[in-house]
Design a protein that fits this description.
Blueprint (H helix, E strand, L loop, with lengths): L1 H21 L8 H9 L3 H5 L1 H16 L13 H15 L15 E2 L4 H11 L3 E5 L5 E6 H11 L12 H5 L6 E6 L4 H13 L4 E7 L10 E3 L1 H14 L1
Parallel strand pairs: 1-2, 4-5
Antiparallel strand pairs: 2-3, 5-6
Helix pairs in contact: 1-2, 1-4, 1-5, 2-4
Protein name: CBS domain-containing protein
InterPro entries: CBS_dom (IPR000644), CBS_dom_sf (IPR046342)
Keywords: CBS domain
Length: 240
């Protein structure tokens, strides 16, 4: 009994430390308060929030309501310790952001003919493509909405407005898209932080493009949108 209680306490304290780290080591490091803040940003906490709150009550009963010596008012079940360890493991070694990205990334050059890109929209059912110049510098995100705006404003002249148009010609019709870049080896926590920060700043993040170095002059290895973040929640629910 003493061993399982000790195992529970050690694992719980490790999770508490991870929560402090995720929240920048705030002055108020109350476990439940940290849970409340963390669940807004991170799926692993959000999915296991209610269970972790219950484990906190159990931990308080073990630590503060011990009757004497090794005689505890409550002791954790083996399944509880096992589950707590699985949560701690994810917090300690979160999966890479690339795990949840759409890949491989289909992208085009600024010189690519618009008709070719429109065919790709239809064939792959994708609503946006990264566009790069010949030096592999990111030029912008070309979306189906941008193409519609371009066509709407150029059809007045008659003919096929897309026949001799390049991707670079259409980018000027795109509304400013908030796109950020992140290293492909970054954790899913880093990824979620990017989206959370953009939400707090009222700057909707259209996509996070993952590259080898996290710089925009590297070719994309994966792309993540808000829809892809749903995969994170689903994965954690499957684990639980």
């Amino acid at each position: 009994m003493h061993d399982i209680v000790e195992e529970f306490e050690i694992t719980f304290n490790q999770i508490h430390q991870h929560l402090k780290e995720l929240n920048g080591y705030p002055k108020n490091d109350n476990f439940v308060e940290l849970l409340q803040h963390s669940k807004l940003k991170h799926s692993v906490v959000r999915v296991h929030f209610d269970q972790l709150k219950q484990y906190a009550k159990l931990r308080n009963a073990i630590v503060h309501e011990r009757i004497s010596g090794d005689y505890y008012i409550a002791t954790p079940h083996e399944d509880v310790v096992h589950h707590l360890k699985s949560i701690q493991k994810i917090l300690e070694q979160p999966p890479e952001a690339l795990t949840f990205a759409t890949r491989p990334v289909l992208f085009f050059k600024t010189s690519t003919n618009l008709l070719h890109i429109m065919e790709a929209f239809s064939k792959h059912g994708i609503s946006q493509f990264p566009i790069y110049d010949d030096s592999h510098h990111f030029a912008g995100l070309l979306t189906n909405d941008g193409i519609v705006r371009f066509l709407a404003q150029t059809t007045e002249n008659g003919g096929n407005p897309a026949l001799h148009v390049q991707a670079s010609d259409v980018l000027g019709y795109e509304k400013h898209a908030n796109v950020q870049f992140l290293s492909a080896t970054a954790s899913v926590f880093d990824l979620e932080e990017r989206f959370e920060k953009s939400l707090n700043e009222d700057k909707k993040l259209k996509a996070v493009i993952l590259t080898k170095t996290g710089q925009s002059d590297d070719l994309p290895m994966g792309i993540v949108t808000t829809w892809d973040l749903i995969k994170v929640d689903r994965r954690e629910q499957d684990i639980s």
